[in-house]
Design a protein that fits this description.
Helix content is 51%, strand content 14%. It has 260 residues and is an alpha/beta fold.
Length: 260
């Protein structure tokens, strides 16, 4: 362990020196909190709290590397099928963290804008209130964007956008023939300012993207990086390795364009 604390910073610097391109928008599927808790022989709530602590640590890395947008997949629409106690504990944890945004020195220092992505109508009123307060308190921050995908489902977001567009066709007389890509994008994450996803990271040794941000990620052919560590064990080195995959892809693409 002592040797690792000495080697890791050196390897981090080595990886940083290799990078020429840093993604503007990284989306992370934080997988493995429950398996981490099982590994340690603690309750599931402790695993989720460890994952939340890792998220806060990652904010320092994002600021240091100049990443503009991070979107975290924290709770999917499918997660509502979990045990009620677990869901209740998660909502309490989410509420606590959103409330802490109001006093978090890191949020103020880095000028982090906090936003929720997902169907907030599915959330309890007290959690919605905490989210609204955090969003309002940080709405003028321009350091970088921290987007929390909560009560989120890739297919569900497209369904919700389709409903809004259909309502405008019926109520405002919009011509269906005028509906285009720009129209759909206006109704996806309206007002959130989310750019296309450059890189998706999934932890926990799972090899699927779980329909995460399909319009912004799959539609823009983002790079994908799967890694073994459970989310609470995710390291800065793992983040840098993921960014290296993106960097290599961009460099190869630029090289291919230059050779035409």
């Amino acid at each position: 362990m002592i040797l690792r604390t000495l080697i890791d910073p050196l390897y981090e610097r080595y990886l940083i020196m290799q990078l020429r391109h840093v993604p503007r928008h990284i989306a992370i599927i934080q997988d493995g909190n429950r398996r981490y808790a099982k590994l340690l022989g603690v309750d599931t709530a402790s695993g989720h709290r460890a994952g939340a602590d890792k998220t806060e640590e990652m904010l320092d890395w994002a600021h240091e590397l100049g990443i503009g947008h991070i979107t975290l997949y924290t709770f999917s629409t499918e997660n509502f099928s979990r045990e009620q106690d677990e869901v209740g504990n998660l909502f309490s944890l989410f509420k606590e963290k959103f409330i802490s945004v109001l006093t978090d020195e890191r949020v103020k220092r880095y000028k982090i804008r906090v936003q929720m992505v997902g169907d907030r109508s599915l959330l309890p009123d007290d959690l919605q209130a905490a989210i609204n307060n955090a969003e309002e308190a940080t709405k003028d921050h321009t350091g970088f964007h921290l987007n929390i995908a909560l009560a989120y489902g890739g297919r569900n977001e497209i369904v919700l956008a389709a409903r809004e567009i259909l309502a405008e066709v019926n109520n405002k007389g919009i011509n269906p023939d005028n509906i285009d890509v720009h129209t759909v994008e206006q109704h996806l994450h309206a007002g959130k300012g989310l750019p296309p996803v450059d890189l998706i990271i999934r932890t926990g040794n799972e090899y699927r993207t779980s329909n995460f941000l399909p319009w912004l990620a799959s539609g823009h052919e983002s790079a994908v990086y799967f890694c073994a560590p459970y989310w609470p064990l995710f390291r800065k080195i793992d983040l840098l390795r993921a960014i290296r995959i993106y960097d290599q892809r961009v460099s190869a693409k630029n090289g291919a364009c230059g050779s035409v």
